[in-house]
Amino acid sequence: MAYPQLDQAAASLSKLQRECDHFDSLAAVFELAGLITPIKSAISETWDDLTCIKDVWDTNVLCKVQFDAWKSTLWSDIRTDVMEEGAKNFVKEIKSLNKKVNGWGRALQAVSPELCVLYCLDHVRHNCLA
Predict the structure, then answer these.
(1) For the chain, what are the domain ranges?
(2) 75-95 mean pLDDT
(3) Model's pTM, two decimal places?
(4) C-alpha–C-alpha distance, residues 40 and 17, integer Å
(5) Are the C-beta atoms of 43 and 9 separated by less than 8 Å?
(6) Range 42-64 burial, b when 16+ CB lie within 10 A, else e
(7) Is the confidence at residue 113, as pLDDT, over 90?
């Protein structure tokens, strides 16, 4: 799981931000605030990236847990319509993540293969029961 690494990164970034805030107050005394601005911007952008990574990871874990639960469904209990709707909801959730994430290219990879399997499963199931 990536959560310990995300927590460690957040703790390190928080420490760095506190140090930056301290230097920012010193820079203001000496009228050098402009020197700290790029550093503060980089820290802010890093917080945004870390938040995006956590959102992607949360969504990935949610998808994995649901798909693993579906894998244990008995053949006679399979409801492909419910599974397909759930998978489509995951796609919508992934697409609603921060726009930065869309450029990363890997967010939809957790759901796409499962959707393909659901379409095939639906086809096979209907042909077997017909």
Answers:
(1) 3-129
(2) 83
(3) 0.74
(4) 8
(5) no
(6) ebeeeeeeeebbbbbeebbeebe
(7) no
83 closest CA partner among 67, 96, 94, 95:
67
Q: Record the tokens describing residue 84, joined without a space.
A: 């397909």
Cβ within 8 Å of residue 100, ≥6 positions away: 48, 49, 52
Whole-angstrom Cα Rg for the chain: 22
The answer to whether the CB of 80 falls within 8 A of the CB of 125 is yes
The sign of the torsion formed by the CA atoms of 6, 9, 15, 20 equals negative
Which DSSP helix (H) or strand (E) runs through 60?
helix 33-71
* pLDDT tens sequence across 8-57: 999 999 999 999 999 999 998 888 888 899 999 999 999 999 998 898 88
Decide if 75 contacts 55 (C-beta within 8 A).
Answer: no
**Tokens 């390190």 belong to residue:** 12
What tokens appear for 36 in the block?
């700290």
| CA proximity to 91, closest of 121, 66, 70 | 66
User: And the tokens for 56?
Assistant: 């992607």
